[in-house]
Every structure is written in C-alpha cells, then in structure tokens.
Specification:
Strand content of chain A: under 5%
Distance between the termini of chain A: 13 Å
Helix content of chain B: over 70%
Number of strands of chain A: 0
Largest sheet of chain B: none
Structural class of chain B: mainly alpha
Shape of chain B: globular
Distance between the termini of chain B: 68 Å
CATH class of one domain in chain B: Mainly Alpha
CATH topology of one domain in chain B: Four Helix Bundle (Hemerythrin (Met), subunit A)
Number of helices of chain B: 8
Order of helices and strands of chain B: HHHHHHHH
Number of strands of chain B: 0
Order of helices and strands of chain A: HHHHH
CATH superfamily of one domain in chain B: NADH-ubiquinone/plastoquinone oxidoreductase chain 6, subunit NuoJ
Oligomer: heterodimer
C-alpha cells in the first residue's frame, strides 16, 4: 500500500486513532462497571491499529507492532487466561475458581476477572491485527 | 405507538431491505459494505433490546473489523461474483425447507419476554440475586462471562486463537513457498 494518502484522511485519523486506542483501554478496564470487556476492547484496539495501517501503510505499522511480536501476543493472552485457571488450581481451588486467588473471595474474583479479561483482550487484538497483516501481505505478493 | 415500537419497526424494515438488496448484488465490494450496514442495524436492535454488551460486540466486530477483513479478502479474490451456471431449484428448495423447519421450531417456543420462560427460571435468577455478593461487580454480564461461565469464554478465546493459526497457516504458508527457489509445478 502506498502511504501518500490524502491530507484530510491523515489529519482526521491523527485525531481519531489515539482516542480509539485510549477508548479500547477504557473498555478493557471498565468492563466490570459498564458494557464491554476484553473481547470488545481487543477488537477496538485492533481497529485503531488497522486504521493506522490503512492510512499510513502496513510497513510503517509493522515498525510499531512487528509481526514477530504480535505473533507472540496471540498466544500470550490465551496462556494468561489458562494460567489464571492453573494458578487457582495450585492455590487450592478448582480450575478458573478465582475465589482462592486472594484471601477475600470477592477480591479474588476481581483479580481473576481483571486478568482473564486482559488475556481475552490481548489475544483478540493480536489475532485481528495478525489476520489483517496476513491478508495485506498476501494481497501485496499477489 | 411508543417510540420504542417505531424504532424497532424501522430498524427491522431497514434490515429486511438491506438483506434483499444483498441478495441481488453481484458486486462483492458493495456486498461487503452492505453487510457492514446490516451488522450496524442489528447492533441497533440489540441496543433496543437492552443488550448493550452484545450490541457493542456486534458494532465493533460485525460492522467494523469484519468489514475491513472481508475487504482485504475481496482485494485478493476480485470484486465481481463469478456467474453461476447450475440450476437454482436445488438451493431454493434447501433454503425453503430449512426456513420452514426453523419457523416450525419457533412455534412452541415461549412468547417473547415471557417471564416464565425456561431461560428466566433456570440459573438467571440466581445470577441476578447472588452475583453482587459472590463476584461483587456491577455488570452481571461480565460476572457471567468471566466467572460463572469462565470455561466457555476460555473456549471462545481458543476459537479466536485457532482462527489466527488457520489464517497464518493458509496465507503465511503460501507466501513462504512462493519466495523459495522455483521448484514447484
């Protein structure tokens, strides 16, 4: 993709992209209080990155979010999620039983939900960015 | 008519119109964009049903990301749908039979919004009453998704993960093979 897009497109996306990424973080960490959660946050974050890639080109985006790093994050999120489950087993509960993660069951639940939502967000965002990279690379080679 | 009914009717009408136009389209680029609009209208309906979490997902995934990814796919495969040459009777028959079976299946379902429906009498009351004490967060949807149904969500994340692996194998593999010294075919 060429990165000589129109001035209006670039200026508008310069304003939009930071707010999209910030909003993704808000949705991620505010999911316990309002609508949203890890899945939506991951998708919104990926949408911000993909918008950047559409305006400035994939190569420039890959300097910030390199494919090799994104590839690891695809599994890091899932491992974090499953890891919380394994950790709760080691601490004496069932798999994914967050009650045992802290001395107060409610705190344990909060911690568990925060961590697994983070895992969901990381995997979803990484997967979406990865699929976009793959499609774009394939279209370019073709 | 109250405002909710008017909103519902206009959203459903627009949904039907979008679906009908989608059927008639041969231009894949326009079809992708229209399916994005379809998703956005569905998201509106979910908001009207007070399912904001689902609406959020539908708007972000269906109307946003899927559209971009499908546009990427269209860029690879071409903008026009290839002309089908086989008879249309079989597809129409299959669709009609399936639709009839689905509609027949809805006949003995509980009425929309019925408080005595099985879904409202099974575990839902317990979640509503107890999640405040047990989990302690205001959004019950998050409590159910992340804690009560943690296994299911783990499965969903695994599905998303598998999708990425599939795409990487399918598209990434081809790129590597092409860049090797020509040995194939």
């Amino acid at each position: 993709m060429n990165n000589r897009r129109s001035l209006i497109l670039r200026e508008v996306s310069n304003v939009v992209i930071p707010s999209v990424l910030l909003y993704a973080l808000y949705v991620q960490f505010h999911g316990e209080y309002g609508p949203g959660g890890g899945f939506q946050a991951g998708v919104i974050f990926a949408a911000g990155v993909i918008l950047y890639a559409l305006v400035y080109g994939r190569k420039k985006t890959q300097k910030i979010f390199p494919t090799s790093v994104i590839r690891y994050f695809v599994s890091i999120g899932l491992l974090l999620y499953a890891g919380v489950g394994v950790a709760s087993m080691f601490m004496g509960g069932n798999f994914l039983d967050y009650n045992v993660l802290s001395h107060d069951p409610q705190h344990g639940q909060h911690l568990g939900i925060l961590l697994i939502e983070l895992g969901v967000g990381i995997t979803v965002a990484a997967v979406m960015i990865m699929i976009f990279y793959m499609l774009d690379e394939y279209a370019e080679k073709k | 008519m109250d405002i909710q009914t008017i909103v519902d009717i206009s959203l459903l009408t627009l949904l039907a119109v979008t679906a009908l136009i989608l059927l008639r389209l041969n231009n894949l680029l326009a079809a992708v964009l229209l399916s994005g609009i379809y998703s956005l209208l569905t998201a509106g309906l979910f908001v009207s049903l007070d399912a904001v979490d689902v609406a959020f997902t539908e708007a972000a995934v269906g109307a946003g990301l899927t559209t971009v990814l499908l546009l990427g796919a269209v860029a690879i495969t071409g903008r026009e749908q290839s002309v089908t040459r086989h008879s249309r009777i079989l597809p129409i028959a299959v669709t009609t039979v399936t639709a009839a079976a689905l509609i027949y299946g809805t006949l003995d379902m509980p009425k929309f919004g019925d408080p005595m429906a099985p879904i409202h009498t099974h575990v839902a009351p317990r979640y509503i009453e107890m999640s405040g004490e047990e989990i302690g967060i205001p959004n019950i949807v998050t409590s159910v998704l992340a804690s009560y149904r943690g296994y299911d969500t783990l499965g969903e994340v695994t599905v998303v993960f598998t999708a990425a692996i599939g795409v990487m194998l399918l598209l990434g593999g081809v790129i590597k093979r092409k860049s090797k010294p020509k040995k194939h075919e």
